[in-house]
Amino acid sequence: MDEALIRLEAVTKTYRLGETTVPALRGVSLDLHPGEFTALVGPSGSGKSTLLNLVGCIDEPDTGRVSVEGVDVSTLSDDARSRLRNRRIGFIFQSFNLVPVLDVRENVELPLLVHERLPVAERRERVAQALADVGLADFARHPPDKLSGGQRQRVAIARALVTRPILVLADEPTANLDSETAARILDLMVELNERRKVTFLFSTHDEKLMARVARHVHIRDGLIEKDGVARGA
Amino acid sequence: MTVIAIALIASTLGAAPAGAPDAAVLLRDSDRARGALPQGVTWTVELTSEEEGTRKAKTMLVKARGVDALAETIAPPRSKGELVLFNDRALWFVKPGLRRPVSISARQRFQGDASNGDIASTNYARDYTGVVAGEDVVGGEPAWRLDLVARASDVTYDKIRYWVAKRSHLAIKAEFLTVGGDLFKTATFEYGNRLRVGGETVDFVSRMVIRDAMGTGSVTTLTFSSPKAETHAPSVFNVNNVVR
Amino acid sequence: MTGGWRIAVRNLSRNRRRNVATGLAIAVGYASLVILGGYSNYAYEGMGALTVYLQRFGHVSIHKPGGLARAAAKPSAYSFTAEEQRAIAGLLAADPRVELAGRYLRAGGLAGNGCKSVPFVATGVEPEVEQRLLVHPRVQAWAPERARPVEGAALSGAAGEEAQAALAVGYAKKLRKHPSAAEPTSGTAPLDCAAGRADGDPWIQLAAIDFDGGFNALDARVTSLYRAVLYEEDKTSLMTDLPTLQRLLATDRVTSFAVYLRDPEDAPAVARDLAGSLERAGIAAELHRFDDPAASPYYTGTLAMTWAIVGFVGILVVIVAAISMLNAMTLTILERTRELATFRSLGFTRRQVTGLFLREATALTALGIAAGLGLGLLVSAAVGAAHVEIEPSGIAGTIPLRLVPTPAVCVGAAIAYFPCSLAATWLAVRRSVGRPVVQLLTAVTA
Question: Does chain A reach chain B with at least 3 CB pairs under 8 Å?
Answer without folding.
Answer: no
